[in-house]
From TrEMBL, chain B:
Stated family: Belongs to the ABC transporter superfamily. Ycf16 family.
Organism lineage string: Bacteria, Pseudomonadati, Pseudomonadota, Alphaproteobacteria, Hyphomicrobiales
PROSITE patterns with a match to the protein in the record: ABC_TRANSPORTER_1 (PS00211), ABC_TRANSPORTER_2 (PS50893)
Keyword entries, A-Z: ATP-binding, Nucleotide-binding
UniProt-listed SUPFAM superfamilies: P-loop containing nucleoside triphosphate hydrolases
Pfam family, one: ABC_tran
Leader peptide range in chain numbering: none
Keyword 4Fe-4S on entry: no
Originating organism: Rhodoblastus sphagnicola
Record has Metal-binding as a keyword: no
Protein name: Fe-S cluster assembly ATPase SufC
Amino acid sequence: MIALAPSKADEAFATLLPADASPSERASFAQFRQAGLPSRRVESWHYSDLRARLRTVPPLAAAPDDASLSVARGKLGASARLRIVTVDGFYAPDLSDDVSKIAGVAIASARETDFLGAAADPLLDLNAALSRGGFVLDIAAGARIDPVIEIVALTGAQTDRSRFGRNLIRLGAKARAQIVETRDEGFAGFGDSALFIELGEDAQLDHACRCRETAGVELQSFTATLAARAKLRSVALLAQTPFLRRQYFVSLAGEGAQLHLGGAAVLGRNDHADVTLVVRHDAPHGLSRETFKYVLADHANGVFQGKITVPPHAQKTDGKMMCRGLLLSDEAALSAKPELEIFADDVACGHGAAVTKLDAQNLFYLETRGIPTIEAEKILIDAFAADVFDALESEVLRDLLRVDLSEILGEETLV
Amino acid sequence: MLEIENLHVSIAGKKILNGLTLTVEDGQVAAIMGPNGSGKSTLSYVVAGRADYEVEQGSIRLDGIDLLRKSAAERAALGLFLVFQYPLEIPGVATMTFLKAAINAQRRARGESDLPIPDFMKQVRAAAQKLDISQDMLKRPVNVGFSGGEKKRMEILQMALLEPRFAILDEMDSGLDIDALKTCAEGVNALRGKDRGLLVITHYQRLLDFISPDIVHVMSRGKIVKSGGPELALALEASGYAEYAEGAAA
Ligand SMILES: Nc1ncnc2c1ncn2[C@@H]1O[C@H](COP(=O)(O)OP(=O)(O)O)[C@@H](O)[C@H]1O
Ligand SMILES: [Mg+2]
């Protein structure tokens, strides 16, 4: 590999490592420094040249003080849901509901040792080195949590900051929960957040992520490990993303685990959203479904990279990966790179990618019923994107995403 | 009243309507019969406002309003309705969502407020029952997986809910068995009235046994070539379209 001279941003990160960093934080940081910010010359970053994009690195966000807590509180409307709030990546108990009053739920500040292994990725290394103040949410074995728990990520800063949230959700054996994550940290700054999910045997988690306003440059890493027969269903709705890379590292570690991943990106302006999946079937009889859809208007740029790996021992794997784009402008683009790496012989795996435009006949049909063109287009766009929500079993989460999507389509002028 | 005058239409450089002139009075049920390829569907699409046809000459007026200057949705809001020969399937759009959007769009265009949900539900349920449309069909996406007959019944349901001033029915009978045809025809007949004009397009006389027309027009090669009473349809049934077919002496 060609060694690149450190960029200005690389150098700037060097100043962010706190003096009291632990040995393992220092080790992670050294790994990041060695790789440097990924550029398009790194294959998996080919479509998202972070090195070119990230010119300046804002100061590290500090643990929230009274002033930033009050900024964040101002953004936090009322809600009937139980909420766990983070401010600039730090768990903020003062703004959060006490979820531990639900039987079987416990929350605590995260320690370094809580996090098990992570994928080899420079941004995960950077996150491990610089993050502070995350939480661990534990759902006890056998607990069945009916109320939806919401994780809200806000900023309390008035100026650009670099944020490194790092949180862990653990479900014990046979536990069940539904969690919605609302990311609303704002356009400014740099974000490199990481969410870790560990599902015990037979555990089931429905997870919806609503990405409203991401940072100017934002990385989101989603790492999940599924024990035998665990089921993870996770859908993300991405909008207003100046430059977003959302990367998934999922291991179906136990036999018969099931993974349903979905995403809908609604992009306009010069928005850039890159979804990169690395799904590994590490045991027999696993099932995975990945469906990602992109609505692309203006000069928007969508990227989908999906890799499903099936080692020799993961027989009877059933994997299907699909990416679809709806192009609303000639200047918008979708780059799709689905890949299968299959080393087992008795598997059923497939992938596909397709790009379409709005169907003129369908539009005409709606218009002849009196529905004006713009509304008719939104109905068809909504229908295109919303079907990824069906990956979730939780009706409540599906409805939350549906409402969000129609709000986004209501606000955006896409066509 | 629908007035079409000297309409010339082409698509992709191919001339399809050649100076078609036709008037349908309020309260009148007019039939257009014609061989396949004579331009019947083209006529219905052009009146409804499909954008990919080129109108080279002529005019289309509904109650004196120039439709050619209006979008398809505006035409619908003025009271025009088209029963499609081949209704479209729209995956992902729930039938009820679609019906509500259509009804409210037209109400808004007329300056009315949205129909309250309970009233909407009541109206849909009543109209669906008359057309033998099950709750299950209403729960599915628009026309997706419907049989030919179910699609046509769904078209008539929309027509009943939207209460158009003027409706064009493009080969409503195609793909229908006799029972479905009866159900649809009853639905259409219930909407006959002195204020509503209907243009019933068909290839076969059979439909006109169920929806009896006041006047019958014969269309050939893009224009009306003959008009007469209901007996004209019976004569056509006996003689066939041979004398009107492509290539026959005019
Ligand atoms: N989009 C189109 N492009 C080219 N030719 C067309 C198109 N639509 C219709 N036509 C042609 O126009 C003629 C009339 O078609 P149509 O209006 O469907 O007739 P009808 O409904 O009477 O059977 C046919 O020859 C058909 O092939
Ligand atoms: Mg036709």
